[in-house]
Amino acid sequence: YLLLSLPSDSSWDAAYERELQTFQDIGDAGEIWFGEESMARIIRWLEKQKVPPDSPMLDIGTGNGVLLVELAKSGYTNLTGVDYSPAAIQLSEKVTEKERMSNIKLKVEDFLAPSAELSGFEVCIDKGTFDAISLNPDNAVGKRKQYLRSLCRALKPEGFFLITSCNWTKEELLNEFREGFEILEELPTPKFCFGGRIGNSVTALVFQRK
């Protein structure tokens, strides 16, 4: 498994400030976490599962909001993105405005200390946010437990949780989310060969809340 190089807490805002300035200068929304294929993988699963287009969906740690834009282009109409970085939400707003996506709600929220209104979602999606929390040197174990509590509050019973990670194996994620969730499916991700052994650099799983 490859460890993703992530900014520290103090530099997330600075990173998004740079991306915001770049977007204002040249219209580039910045990095797509795990690449475009990761977004297509999520959308294919939602379509295969026949998730209704008006199902409330939450993008946890939305960053530049590009996943939400792709979901909207695919016909999903009840979309919310949260990020604890105000600069990220500013960037998301710029990106969605450019794409004329008026059905996307964006909020500055710390998912580890969410507001009461962050609830009632049928689908929650995480691409790298749980990874970032896991690498936090300040009480990472406690933060992971708080993440699980927040997820249980945000997601309706029987709702779907789609997580993409480059720091956790399938078995580790099953252990992390064993309380309150059951695994539905492992989504196919690119494989690599190292030393004659084949493995995955990214894990993508779908859980259902019990």
TrEMBL record:
GO biological process: methylation
Keywords from the UniProt entry: Cytoplasm, Methyltransferase, Nucleus, S-adenosyl-L-methionine, Transferase
Pfam families, alphabetized: Methyltransf_31
UniProt keyword Cytoplasm present: yes
Endpoints of the signal sequence: none
Domain of life: Eukaryota
CDD domains in alphabetical order: AdoMet_MTases
Domain Methyltransferase: 55-185
Gene Ontology terms for molecular function: protein-lysine N-methyltransferase activity
The UniProt record lists the keyword Transferase: yes
Catalytic activity: L-lysyl-[protein] + 3 S-adenosyl-L-methionine = N(6),N(6),N(6)-trimethyl-L-lysyl-[protein] + 3 S-adenosyl-L-homocysteine + 3 H(+)
A single cellular component GO annotation: cytoplasm
Name of the protein in question: EFMT2 methyltransferase
Originating organism: Brachypteracias leptosomus
Species classification: Eukaryota, Metazoa, Chordata, Craniata, Vertebrata
Gene name in the database record: Eef1akmt2
